[in-house]
Amino acid sequence: MSLLRNKWMTLMINVLIVTLMFTVVAPVYDLFHYINSLFYIAYAYLFIGILLWVIRGGFFDAITYSFRRFHNRVSKQKDYMDDWHKKPLPSQTVEKSWLGFFIFNGGMLMVGLLALLAVYYNY
């Protein structure tokens, strides 16, 4: 677990994953296919990071609260022990460390991707 806390070590692990994916999946070993492999991993990280950022910002809190309240009012089997209004909202369940983890790794992989694209198009 301490290995994942070091953000530079996880970045190196991600580069190794990209290289492994490139060697297994690529039909031809060239820079174009390596850039494609890096794109898949980088933008998966960025997509998850941006989704966590939107959730942490509270975008889905009102919707979740409304659905819980509606379900409590409409439900035929009342559970009086259920405190629907005290349950944590989605923005309270996303930890800031996970958000930073995905944004940092996705951003650094994207910087590498842009550098490789510059090399590819200038070569």
Walkthrough of the structure:
It is a single chain. Helix 2 crosses helix 6. The protein is built from six helices and no strands. Helices cover 76% and strands 0% of the residues. It has helices at 2-5, 7-25, 31-56, 61-74, 90-93, 96-122. It is an all-alpha fold and 123 residues long. The longest helix is centred in the C-terminal third of the chain and has 27 residues, at 96-122. The mean pLDDT is 90. It has a domain at 2-58 and 95-122. This is DUF3899 domain-containing protein. Residues 35-117 form the DUF3899 domain.
Distance between the termini: 41 Å
Shape: elongated
Describe the largest sheet. none
Give the overall pLDDT as a whole number. Answer: 90
User: In percent, how helical is the residue content?
Assistant: over 70%
Question: How much β-strand is present in the residues?
Answer: under 5%
> Count the strands?
0
Secondary-structure element order, N to C: HHHHHH
Helical region count? Answer: 6
Low-pLDDT regions? none
Structural class: mainly alpha
So what's the oligomer here?
single chain
Radius of gyration: 21 Å
